[in-house]
Amino acid sequence: MGASPNPLGLTALRERLLIRRLQQRDERAFHEIVRLYQHKVFNLVLRMIGNREEAEDVAQEVFVTVFKSIDGFRGEAKFSTWLYRIAANHCKNRMKYLGRRSYKATGELDEAAERELQDAQPSAMTPHLDGPDKVLEGMQMERLVQEGIALLDEEHRMLIVLRDVEDLSYQEICAITGLAEGTVKSRLHRARMSLKEYLAKRVG
Amino acid sequence: MATVDHAQASELFSSYWDEELGPDEAARLEEHLRSCVVCRREYEHFERALGAVGALAHELAPRGFAAGVVQRVHKRARGRAFASRGLLDRLPYELFSLLMLGLILAIYVILQMAQPGHLRLP
Ligand SMILES: [Zn+2]
């Protein structure tokens, strides 16, 4: 199946060659891999962490780990799955660290209370806007969604980002998170319902 | 054919959204959504929320990201991370050290010249 394309349209064969060169510590191959996957990884991390500066730092660390542990990649999983797993672990660790420092994930929101999702009320924090039509578009909706995601607990956040932002299959998500498919589906459903609740209260 | 009751309906939202319900079950849910205002409204919110999540912009990594990563790897491994390459491919540290040596020598010579007494033979 040497010609089946990966999510980036790279043929499996070309990807395998790149990885082999990377395993031989070829700098150009590494640069190429970073260049190919940087946007995917950055976006994933940004949606998880909610802060650009932190996201850039974490995404860079993801690739440093890729370089350090590429010998451990045996090709049983897809490279992108392996890479996402590393990214997911880095996100988890950073969120724990930031949580300990009671960091505010979006810079505006208190990350702590997922409770708030259950009884979200329109508040001064997010201006309540009258016409849903107006809100549904553009930056404000995007900000609300990002805030809603930031209020989810770490695992729910990860599942929403992998499935609904990155559009990965359930099979891939299971491989990345190590969870069984039924567990992924039921937890993702909870996460989606929480997010729905949060947005419905704010957008109407 | 059993109908979907009010309590079950919202439990099926995700599978319905993912198009993973069988045709019968999907039809039963649709039937309930047609007849129950509350569930219909809930599903509209659900759809709108997931639509908005899917519409989030795919943000690009900042400029210079890849170069930054390579630099990080270099720094951590003190320059021994990658297989060695030709002199032209990388920062020529050997050249820098030669230049520094030359510079020190030049300074030494200039200092000597500035104090001609030291050079004069008795
Ligand atoms: Zn109902």
Task: Give an overview of the whole structure.
The complex is a heterodimer of chains A (204) and B (122). Helix content of chain A is 69%, strand content 0%. Chain A has ten helices and no strands. In chain A, helix 7 crosses helix 10. With 122 residues, chain B is mainly α. The mean pLDDT of chain B is 86. Chains A and B meet through helix 2, helix 3, helix 7, helix 8 and helix 10 of A and helix 2, helix 4 and helix 5 of B. The complex binds zinc ion. Zinc ion binds at residues 6, 9, 32, 36, 38-39 of chain B. The site of zinc ion has 6 residues of chain B, from helix 1 and helix 4.
Give me the number of helical elements of chain B: 7
How many strands appear in the DSSP assignment of chain B? Answer: 0
CATH topology of the largest domain in chain A: Rna Polymerase Sigma Factor, Chain: A
Tell me which ligands are bound: zinc ion
How much β-strand is present in the residues of chain A?
under 5%
| Number of individual domains of chain B | 2
SSE-based structural type of chain A: mainly alpha
Task: Tell me the number of strands of chain A.
Answer: 0
What is the chains' assembly state?
heterodimer
Return residue spans of chain A where pLDDT drops below 50 for at least 5 consecutive residues: 103-128
- CATH homologous superfamily (4th level) name of the largest domain in chain A: RNA polymerase sigma factor, region 2, helix turn helix motif
Mean pLDDT value of chain B: 86
What pattern of helices and strands is seen along the backbone of chain B? HHHHHHH
Give the number of helices of chain A.
10
Terminal Cα separation of chain A, in Å? Answer: 49 Å
Question: How many discrete structural domains of chain A?
Answer: 2
In percent terms, what proportion of residues of chain B is strand? under 5%
Topology of chain A as a string of helices (H) and strands (E): HHHHHHHHHH
Q: What is the CATH top level name of the largest domain in chain A?
A: Mainly Alpha
Low-confidence sequence ranges of chain B: none
- What form of chain B results from the Cα inertia axes? rod-shaped
